[in-house]
């Protein structure tokens, strides 16, 4: 019999909170059971294993990020949209480091196809229409933006920029200016 009040959704949210506290890699069904003061076996009526828990946290994180991005991009275009999208990723990573790490977790092709990751790509492509990019350059640009956003945020969160001036916000602003200029002047193949 399932413990009253425990549902896959509640366990997923608790797992996401745990990821933010201890790191996504540290999230397991056993650790979650300790959080609820239940035996691990009692969670297996809701979750198959830690892989399913991590997949559910990833799907939640992608959904949260996509919702924030949609709100931030509404009514914006060009550089304004680029800055808004970049700041969504950076702010989310700062507020929810474990969930942000989860958003990078490799999903099965089936889970990926049904995830909000598809919305992320669609929103980024919509943003790029303001820069008049066509395929395959649009795909290259989507990959560039994802690489820069994730790379910068990961290095910043890991303390990689904390040992020297200028302030990381100044660098972030300059990088977004440079990305805007690059997107406006995308090189020909």
From TrEMBL:
Residues forming coiled coils: none
Residue ranges constituting the HTH tetR-type domain according to the UniProt record: 5-65
Taxonomic source organism: Streptomyces griseoloalbus
DNA-binding span(s): 28-47
SUPFAM superfamilies per record: Homeodomain-like, Tetracyclin repressor-like, C-terminal domain
Keyword Chloroplast on entry: no
InterPro entries assigned to the protein according to its UniProt record, in alphabetical order: Homeodomain-like_sf, HTH_TetR, MT1864/Rv1816-like_C, Tet_transcr_reg_TetR-rel_C_sf
Superkingdom of origin: Bacteria
PROSITE patterns: HTH_TETR_2 (PS50977)
Keyword DNA-binding annotated: yes
Protein name: AcrR family transcriptional regulator
Keywords: DNA-binding, Transcription, Transcription regulation
GO MF assignments: DNA binding
């Amino acid at each position: 019999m399932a413990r009253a009040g425990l549902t896959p959704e509640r366990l997923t949210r608790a797992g996401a909170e745990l990821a933010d506290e201890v790191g996504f890699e540290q999230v397991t069904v056993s650790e979650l059971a300790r959080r609820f003061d239940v035996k691990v076996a009692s969670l297996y009526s809701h979750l198959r294993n830690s892989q399913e828990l991590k997949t559910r946290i990833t799907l939640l994180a992608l959904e949260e990020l996509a919702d924030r991005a949609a709100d931030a991009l509404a009514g914006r275009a060009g550089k304004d949209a680029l800055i808004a999208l970049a700041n969504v990723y950076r702010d989310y990573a700062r507020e929810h480091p474990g969930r942000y790490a989860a958003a990078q977790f490799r999903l099965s092709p089936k889970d990926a196809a049904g995830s909000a990751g598809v919305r992320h790509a669609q929103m980024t492509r919509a943003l790029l229409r303001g820069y008049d990019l066509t395929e395959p350059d649009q795909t290259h640009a989507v990959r560039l933006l994802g690489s820069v956003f994730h790379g910068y945020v990961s290095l910043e969160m890991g303390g990689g920029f904390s040992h020297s001036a200028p302030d990381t916000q100044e660098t972030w602003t300059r990088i977004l200016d440079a990305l805007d200029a690059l997107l406006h002047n995308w090189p020909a193949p």
